[in-house]
Design goal:
87% helix
């Protein structure tokens, strides 16, 4: 193998490594966003259940229900 081929091989491996690290960063960011939305969903659901016990027909209950349903749809959670 000539020096030229070795340089090309090293360059290709470097480019491959950069591509993998960029994809890994994207997947990590996506996972963090999903975890945040899941925590928000759980928090809103708790608030909704507390408010639903107090008053079933209040405006806050209806708003919280809509937020919980929207987050469930975004996260693809079956209710």
């Amino acid at each position: 193998m000539t020096l030229r081929h070795k340089i090309k091989l090293i360059f290709c491996r470097f480019i491959w490594w950069l591509r993998i690290t960029e994809e890994a960063k994207k997947h990590y960011d996506t996972l963090q966003n999903y975890k945040y939305l899941l925590d928000l969903y759980e928090e809103k659901k708790k608030e909704f259940l507390k408010e639903h016990k107090k008053k079933t027909d209040s405006i806050e209950t209806i708003q919280l229900k809509a937020q919980v349903e929207l987050l469930a749809r975004i996260l693809d959670i079956k209710q």
